[in-house]
Amino acid sequence: MLEVKQVSLHYGAAIALRKVSIQAKQGEVTCILGRNGVGKTSMLRAITGAHPISGGEIVWNGENISRLPLYERARRGIAWVPQGRDVFPLLTVRENLETGFAVLPRGKRTFPDDMYDLFPILKTMQRRRGGDLSGGQQQQLAIARALVTRPKLLVLDEPTEGIQPSIIKDIGRVIDLLRSRGEMAIVLVEQYFDFARDLAQTIAVMDRGDIVLYGRREDLDEDDVRRRLSV
Amino acid sequence: MSSNQETLLYLDGVSVTFDGFRALNSLSLVLAQGELRAVIGPNRAGKPTMMDVITGKTRPDTGKVVFGKDTDLTKLDEPAIADLGIGRKFQKPTVFEPHTVWDNLLLALAGDRRPRFTLWARQTSEESDRIDAILKTIRLREHRDRRSGDLSHGQKQWLEIGMLLAQEPQLLLVDEPVAGMTDAETEQTAELLREINHTRSVVVVEHDMAFVRALGVKVTVLHEGSVLSEGSIDHVSNDPRVIEVYLGR
Questions:
Q1: Inter-CA distances, A210 with A8, A13, A160, Å
Q2: Which of A115, A172, B36, B65 has its CA at 20 to 30 Å from residue B213's CA atom?
Q3: In this structure, which topology does domain B7-94+168-246 adopt according to CATH?
Q4: Are B123 and B106 in contact (CB under 8 A)?
Q5: Global pTM?
Q6: Between vectors from CA A209 to CA A205 and to CA A211, what angle results, nearest 5°?
Q7: What domains can you pick out in chain A, each with its CATH number?
Q8: A231 and B212 in contact by Cβ < 8 A?
Q9: Which residues of chain B are within 8 Å of residue A191 when distances are taken between CB atoms?
Q10: What is the complex's ipTM, to 2 decimals?
Q11: What is the pLDDT of residues B95-131, one digit of tens each?
């Protein structure tokens, strides 16, 4: 289980997270919703270690990982699918996937057996350059690359942004399948409300660096959530 | 000044494409002389690109940007546009941290800044008066001798707004000024911009809805590079198209 406890995060003197707390449990999708600029990505940076926190702590399966660098957290099973995907444009699809090996011990550097079942398009495009893929294909590649690291916590930052509806559906199916296996906790940052609601067990809504609404999906009033997402 | 309906800035069918991505899509927008306008919009709405086009950082593929009576900004470069009186405040504070608040403002004052002049420059009493007036506006009178790197985040943002004011712009473009500010600083920033608006036109891009409400001015909602909705904050927040867009549909 991931526990974010009273975490603050600053960029220089500017505050981005104001003592936020959430939990993400194995076998569940925890969804972080909010308009742009409210701190969703900062929350993911805090969790993955991409930016140091200035207060509070982050506990992963009982261990305080607040001070661990990004790569140590990756070795402990935390994988990040960043916004904008960050696919290496000049590497092939296969090479992009192989970058996920970096966090695995030498003997275990294989692709997950079902990777190409989850994302058949990646098999047919193995030799294509990452940069030549469509946005939706790149998103699938970024998720697959994260899965290569055999994550126990998968963190996705707006995977539907700028992607065509048919691929959004595919991505939704994969996230739901990964959750249903019960092997990992999933934290999903989204602005696409319907997509997030259909996948989430727990929803956190952010505004101004704070969590303004938090609970099990069935306990939250959907209109209330909607209101806090629009302007 | 808002009763004065003369147009200060007119974007007419401006389009910008980057690598096939249409950042601005035939964007048209009219800003009246003396107006304070808030611009909001979800990701990829084109807000920074709009600022880039106005300030000459990006040239549009098509469309015109008319400033004042008949100056087409798309024909001018960045320094020329700044000289015309358009000042831009970027999101991150960029003050000279080792210098005092006072010296930052002194450096920013409009005037001759060529080396030969600057080397022998003396601070005049007129300059001191102007800096004093700016310090008052930006709520930093008590902090004039402090090293600006020691200011709070909000104060640094105000100082930079003050540095823009020192350039005597007609139009201020302010990008996400309250991101990272405390609640109190956010409120004061809304007040500050309203004060500045007594003498200058201002366009402010923000995500913070509490702040936009506090400004209480006309709001433009951008979406996919065009104006989706425009009007009072209550008008746009009840506009079903705006709600759809913010729910990501």
A1: 10, 17, 23
A2: B65
A3: Rossmann fold (3.40.50)
A4: yes
A5: 0.86
A6: 30
A7: 2-229 (3.40.50.300)
A8: yes
A9: 42-43, 246-248
A10: 0.78
A11: 999 999 999 999 998 776 677 666 667 778 888 999 9
